[in-house]
Fold each of these.
Amino acid sequence: MSAKIPRGAAVVVEAGKVLVVKRYLRQGASAECVMCEYGDVPGPRCDGHRYAVLPGGHVEAGESAAGAALRELEEETTLTGAVDRLLWTGTHNGRPAYYFLISDVDGVPELSGDEAVEHSATNHFELRWADAADLEEFGIYPAALRQHLTRLIEAGDDAG
């Protein structure tokens, strides 16, 4: 059995809000849908999922999780920045996940990369600034992040 590819994620906090990617995903069959698989959705059909994630993605060969977080942040949002520190570790769809606070953020967030190209009626992406209440409403995923992000927002930690 091969090791699961880790995920690096960028935590960008500004003015009491965190940048998230709101998503709607629907596949034809639940067997084709990663959210059905990890959400234990029964049945043959995928009815669709509305949720939000932090900008991030898989760690490429020879890349660190921090490097992946910065690369994915730029690819998905056009923002650049620097890693301030590792905030948390966890899992995302059954693979290791590393969450980094990003500082010295430059630019205006704009949906880009695959998230902009793959926009469709069954695969929709939207960048949003979320406060603590929004995290629940948007369905932050993985759900364990909500508590961590809420504490970070309430502490006013935006890494400058």
Amino acid sequence: MKIEVFGSGCSTCKKLFELTKKAVTELNLNVDVIYLTNIQKMLELGILSSPVLAINGKPVITGFPPSIKKIKEVIKENL
């Protein structure tokens, strides 16, 4: 499983990154969460706004950091 958070470096993007790392830890998954600010990669994936949580290269949450509960649900759905 590949989990990436794409963002511009703003506080909202960093919050999604931190919440996602916490969710992965709480789910006891041995997965690295990567934070990317590469605009070119975002455009290649069709991402036009940030932050974005992508699992296995597929954007699953866009535009806002949801609750940690929601993040865990999305991760479990994509296991």
Amino acid sequence: DRVKELQTGDFQGILEVMGPRPVIIRLLDAPLHEFLPPYETLLTELLGMRHTGAPQADLDDKERFLHLVDSHRESNPMLGHRGCRLGLSFPA
């Protein structure tokens, strides 16, 4: 609901400024980092799991996910890998 609120205001502003001209708004173009947990959070969780003696299978899963998130970190996510480019790189 919060996203809808924010987008409604943004879209109204865009449409008002553009007047009668056509407008295209891409809705599914958020950077990947917005959908992934922060790397630091995952690292902290992994270290906590190791400290408490979590099962090796759980540690392996968390470590794989940590490496996946790390491999997608970007210095400037707004210029990076998203949308259809992401789908082409990772079709699965």
